[in-house]
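Below is how a single chain appears once it has passed through the pipeline. First comes the sequence as given, then the structure the pipeline wrote out for it. We keep one example in the README because the format questions we get most often are answered faster by looking than by reading.
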Amino acid sequence: MTFYGGGELDSLISGLRDLKSGALFEIISIIALTIAFAPLFAITSLLRPMALSGPMGPKIMPLAGLMITQVLLIFGAALIAIILTIFSFYKLYKAASYLKEYDRSRLGIGKTGILLMIMAIILIIIAGVSAIGFFAVTSFSTSTFVPTGPFPFIGPAHMRGLIGAAASLLLLMMIVGILALVGSIFFGIMIMRLGEIKNVEPGFKTAGIIYIISVILSLIPYIAIAGFILSIISLIMIYSCAGRSLGSLETS
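Resulting structure:
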């Protein structure tokens, strides 16, 4: 089934351009993190047999500098990935806004999805800052450290605070998970519906389906890696389909 949106063609073209850029930024950020973390697993595999073979002192020193370098590399790559992810969400938000202008009834769900995902990211940042602040305050508060029970350095007031903070953090992460899941599904539905537009690459339908499946699989333990791989595939398909669609629309 194909349809024409009720908006201007310029809105559709602008939306596809930003969608292509957003997918590209996200792909590059994933590649940056993968390259940074890959050597870390190699170092871990080296340390394990060394630990089993006896004293590690003489053997571990040559790896110390390599590990420090790897930590710095991970930090730098993570910073780059965060910046690219911010640009990605900015572009995807713009794309969803343009596509909503083109057809509010069928494509407007994508902008709602992006907003939900942005809300989830903001809540994650708030949760992280709150957790760091809480533990920093309680760690330097001597009034709560009263020796008692099986944990001699944690007093009752401190323990109640930790339990309360953990419960609040758990509740907040549940809310984050729901917002991210619903938002991702809404965005995937928009991608699927793009494939139904006249003169737009029908491969968007498959890309949207794979995107939604990847989100669901990423929430399941032991097979989350499959969701990660599928998410990369869907992003590559979105980038490719957007490029081909722009070529068709701009020459028609």
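The radius of gyration is 24 Å.

See the next section for the split statistics.
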